[in-house]
Specification:
The protein contains 17 helices and 13 strands. The chain is α+β, with helices and mostly antiparallel strands. Strands 11-12-10-9-7-13 form a 6-stranded mixed sheet, with helices on one face. The chain has a 5-stranded antiparallel sheet with strand order 2-1-5-4-3. The radius of gyration is 44 Å and the shape is rod-shaped.
């Protein structure tokens, strides 16, 4: 990887110079004064070359400014000059003058400072890196520490280093340093897999997040591309959309990514980008629904060689990215469709409300005789026309309420009310829909059933439930309604003897536009909005609607809402009256139901 950027070359020069210094020191100890001065000059020169090569090596990872390079070169020239000025045939400490000792110490300190700076900078740079890069940098730091120990031990204490035990220790250090340098530059695939083992948990969470999260495609792409770069230890990455534009980037400017993409061949998976320092890139196709996109990961100074292992991992991850982006497109389409549907409901319902109101007004005038006398067939048709117009009006009101609900504009105005009285009024309002074949019976307590509800919305719920009981009992039969309460809840129950609902269809019952189709109810009209709206209204009141049914034996629907206790009822009444109003004694609640149910008046048949 370093042929073009000189990283390996500079480290090789540093190690070679260091090894030459060790050989020269041993020669000088053998030859004594014969060639002392030239050997000392070469030792000092080797130290300077080794120190600067390590600084240059570090600058290929963590940049060093031009000014910093000049300072290092100046300091090494100065220290080397002092070393040459103080040179002597022998380097043994017992034979050195104070000036020579100081000069030798400065040479050693300069070398240690250069390698120590490299170790510290690389260690600090590793802290926020992905696991593979972090492990590589810290392995390199460990190798440099071993190199420093070898230098200090063999270069500054040659007599001690000549002992057999010291030789063994130095050889062990040297044997450990070589594989550490190798692994830090080109770690094998199995080593990289071990390093990123802990990161696999985070990757699993990231993939799950991609598959479940549904933001915009740009935001999802930004999340995906960051993990793609981290996965293979790339310096940067970007995603190309199907139209050739940049969808998301990580640690690279959009303009730079566009320029790089124009110069890449999408057909090549591993590309050498050249440059100084030399870079590599992986290109992985993304077969999206709209066309083919691409994921590009770019190597950096801390990146190991890209190979088959990185390519396989990025290919697997690209599958998750493709599925996530396609799902995001589908989600956007569904959201747009839902928005269009809601806008249509809102527009259609508001446009229909006015004409239906006018139609109902004229039908009311016609029935009251204000528009004169009609022929008998017309008079007989007026009730049916009024009934159908009211049904249409109810449908429009349901559509308006559903639109408000979906837009978050549906507001409840709860007031203390008697659920039994509301039930009686609601049943009375649907009386025209019930014929002689559908007697409606209401069973209610002797006293109030106090609840805090929006009266109009609760009346709508009860009307929907009773109307459905009538509609889905085509062969007739009693519709039995009952108001009851226990503990902290009040309930309205309606039971019919109609068609019934299969267990498999119960999940469709309360969904938007959810109609259960069968041969028996094919002729029964409806929008599928009534129960959907009713359940949402009930839950907004803190209650719910439940259903139980059996095919051919009818259905039972129960509306439940919180029951007001006497203290709560008094509080509600007090807030409604205001501070100046007088007090009212708490309501006495009776738990005894009527012994006999009273049928409501029915519309004449026909």
């Amino acid at each position: 990887n370093g042929g073009g950027d000189g990283r390996r070359n500079s480290l090789a020069i540093a190690i070679t110079a260091l090894a030459a210094m060790g050989v020269l020191v041993r020669l000088q100890s053998v030859l004594h004064a014969s060639y002392g001065e030239p050997l000392t000059d070469l030792i000092v020169l080797g130290a300077a070359i080794s120190a600067y090569s390590l600084v240059y090596f570090r600058s290929r990872f963590v940049s060093v400014s031009k000014g910093g390079h000049r300072v290092v070169i100046g300091a090494l020239v100065l220290v080397s000059s002092l070393g040459w000025a103080a040179r002597e045939p022998s380097i043994y400490p017992s034979h050195l003058s104070p000036f020579q000792t100081a000069a030798a110490a400065l040479v050693v300190l300069a070398w240690v400072a250069c390698v120590g700076d490299t170790i510290v900078r690389l260690w600090v740079a590793s802290r926020d890196r992905p696991s593979v890069q972090r492990a590589r940098l810290r392995t390199m730091c460990a190798a440099l520490v071993g190199l420093t120990l070898i230098f200090l031990f063999s270069g500054t204490a040659p007599t001690m280093a000549g002992a057999p035990s010291s030789q063994i220790l130095i050889q062990i250090l040297a044997l450990a340093v070589v594989p550490l340098f190798y692994v830090s530059f080109s770690p094998p695939a199995f080593v990289r897999r071990g390093w990123r083992h802990r990161e696999e948990v985070g990757l699993g969470d990231a993939v799950r997040d991609l598959l479940l999260f549904s933001p915009s495609r740009q935001e999802l792409g930004a999340r995906a591309v960051r993990w793609a770069a981290r996965l293979v230890g790339a310096e940067s990455a970007f995603i190309i959309d199907t139209d050739g534009t940049i969808l998301a980037t990580a640690d690279i400017a959009t303009t730079e990514a566009e320029t790089l993409w124009r110069n890449l061949d999408p057909g090549r998976r591993l590309v050498n980008l050249g440059g100084q320092p030399e870079q590599m890139a992986i290109t992985v196709p993304l077969p999206l629904e709209r066309g083919e996109g691409f994921l590009v990961a770019i190597a950096g100074p801390f990146t190991p060689l890209f190979g088959s292992d990185e390519l396989i991992r990025l290919d697997r991850y690209a599958t998750s990215i493709t599925a996530s982006l396609d799902r995001c497109i589908l989600t956007e389409r569904l959201a747009a469709l839902e928005k269009t549907k809601s806008e249509f409901l809102n527009l259609a319902s508001h446009e229909l409300r006015g004409p239906i109101t006018v139609l109902l007004g004229y039908l009311s005038l016609a029935e009251s005789g204000c528009l004169g006398r009609f022929e008998l067939p017309m008079e007989q048709a007026l009730p049916a026309m009024t009934l159908k117009a009211r049904q249409m009006g109810d449908m429009v009101e349901q559509m308006i309420e559903v639109a408000r609900l979906q837009e978050g504009r549906l507001i409840l105005r709860p007031k203390p009310s008697d659920l039994a009285q509301l039930a009686a009024e609601a049943i009375e309002s649907v009386r025209p829909f019930a014929g002689a074949a559908h007697p409606v019976v209401l069973e209610r307590p002797n006293a109030e059933v106090p609840v805090a509800v929006d009266r109009d919305r609760i009346t709508t719920i009860i009307s929907n439930l009773v109307t459905n009981a009538i509609k889905y009992s085509p062969e007739g039969g009693e519709v039995h309604c009952k108001v009851w309460f226990e503990h902290d809840r009040a309930a309205f129950e309606v039971r019919d003897h109609g068609l019934g609902i299969a267990n498999a269809d119960m999940s469709t019952l309360f969904t938007q536009f959810g109609r259960i189709e069968s041969n028996e109810n094919a002729a029964i009209g409806g929008t599928g909005l009534g129960l959907y709206l009713s359940r949402h209204l009930a839950r907004m009141h803190g209650g719910d609607i439940t259903a139980a049914s059996e095919i051919g034996r009818g259905s039972t629907f129960v509306l439940e809402v919180p029951l007001l206790c006497p203290d709560q009822l008094e509080s509600h009444r007090g807030s409604a009256r205001g501070p100046a109003a007088g007090s009212t004694a708490p309501l006495a609640i009776s738990y005894q139901l009527q012994q006999s149910a009273t049928p409501l008046p029915q519309a004449p048949s026909g």
